[in-house]
Design a protein that fits this description.
The protein is an alpha/beta fold and 206 residues long. The protein has a 7-stranded mixed β-sheet, with helices on both faces. Helix content is 36%, strand content 18%. The chain has 6 helices and 7 strands. α1 links the parallel β1 and β2.
């Protein structure tokens, strides 16, 4: 299968569905990884553009895949200005060469981060290019605020869980022990003792 996995920021793919991506890669699927907010200025004093770029490179090495990164517009202060408009959508389509993916994994529209919501909108606009199946992914650090997202697909990542933790460790400037443990608890809870990642199938063409 030709698979597209989209994260709003560096670390979102790893947090939400890193194990599933590792599984797809091992199975031989052709996987494209896309980040919509390029490394840029940070409000977190422990992070900056260079640190995030280094962390993203480490993650890329674990996946064995290079990320495609949207050339995000920036505010005057260097912070990212991700918007869902005709220019951003055109840039997104150009980045992907309008490929008709078999499967597209996108952020949940209930994530309580504005960039995640915008990323969902940008991705949904891409459906017209012949995408056969779309999964929204549950984000462990935002799922406590969901009211409508009900997973209807669980992917067992037990075989890849150690390597997922390796992916999380790439982002030490953001993912402290508490956040990492929250991600682990989320994965274990939904799998009733076994680590899983959760998705909602919102389109399936057979």
């Amino acid at each position: 299968m030709k698979i597209l996995v989209v994260g709003a920021h560096p670390d979102d793919i790893e947090i939400s569905c890193g194990g599933t991506v590792l599984k797809f890669i091992q199975e031989g699927h052709d996987v494209d990884l896309v980040v919509l907010v390029k490394p840029s200025s940070e409000v977190n004093k422990k992070r900056n553009k260079d640190i995030v770029e280094t962390e993203l490179d480490k993650s890329s090495n674990v996946f064995g895949k290079k990320f495609k990164i949207l050339n995000t517009l920036l505010f005057d202060n260097g912070r990212p200005n991700l918007e869902c408009n005709v220019n951003t959508i055109t840039d997104f389509e150009s980045l992907l060469n309008n490929i008709p993916y078999d499967l597209m994994i996108i952020p949940c529209n209930e994530d309580t981060h504005n960039d995640h919501k915008i990323a969902n909108q940008i991705c949904m606009s891409y459906i017209r290019h012949g995408v056969k199946e779309i999964w929204e992914v549950g984000h462990p650090l935002y799922s406590h605020n969901y009211t409508a997202f009900v997973p209807n697909l669980l992917v067992n990542i037990e075989q890849f869980f150690t390597k997922k933790l390796e992916l999380l460790n790439c982002y030490s400037s953001y993912l402290d022990e508490n956040k990492t443990n929250e991600i682990i608890r989320h994965n274990i809870y939904y799998g009733r003792g076994f680590p899983v990642e959760v998705f909602k199938i919102i389109k399936k063409q057979i």
